[in-house]
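Q: I have 220 residues here and want to know how they pack in 3D. Can you give me a structure?
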Amino acid sequence: MIRVLLVDDQPLIRSGFRALLDLEEDIEVVAEAADGQRALELAREHLPDVALIDIQMPGVDGIEATRRIAADPALAGVHVVILTNYGLDEYIFDALRAGAAGFLVKDIVPDDFLHAVRVAARGDALLAPSITRKLINRYVTMPLTTGVGTGLEELTSREREAVVLVAQGLSNDEIAGRMVISPMTAKTHINRAMTKLRARDRAQLVVFAYESGLAAPRGS
């Protein structure tokens, strides 16, 4: 059973998402909150697999709530998915750095929404290739972040190669094909890289790859 925490300051939005989730036999909404502070309290109480958190809320917003969840070792199993009205806006980059596993636009179709919840529960990042391309375009115009390379020297050559391919938006199967290895071996390289770089998930691995200069935007 996938346990979900819903966080949005608009009751109608929460009730709409809950109505969809309640129809699924493998998903259970364990709690709801209208602000980030309450979300943090409920996350500690219920330990959900997925926390769907609105990015803009009064008081503690979605980014700060994500940052606090990511910083709490007791909540390491909680995968935060940011909800937004605006697609890839300026706040998304801050949310990914804070520890979000990905994000969803609120006008997503129901089937895609349910699929996304299941993907997040598995620990996979919700970064479609189109979103990854936008991330890349953003980094074309940004200088490298100083002090980001911690752990980079610990990566093996194959792990570095896998991280670069992750940053290009490739799936594990596609990475396996490029590297001529099995999908399981590709996943192992990626998981080891995340451990060494202290990345919570694939989304943070993408951010790290570009901020450290390990992956270079095409055409840069």
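Q: Anything worth noting?
A: Confidence is low (pLDDT under 50) at residues 143-148. The first helix runs from residue 11 to 22.
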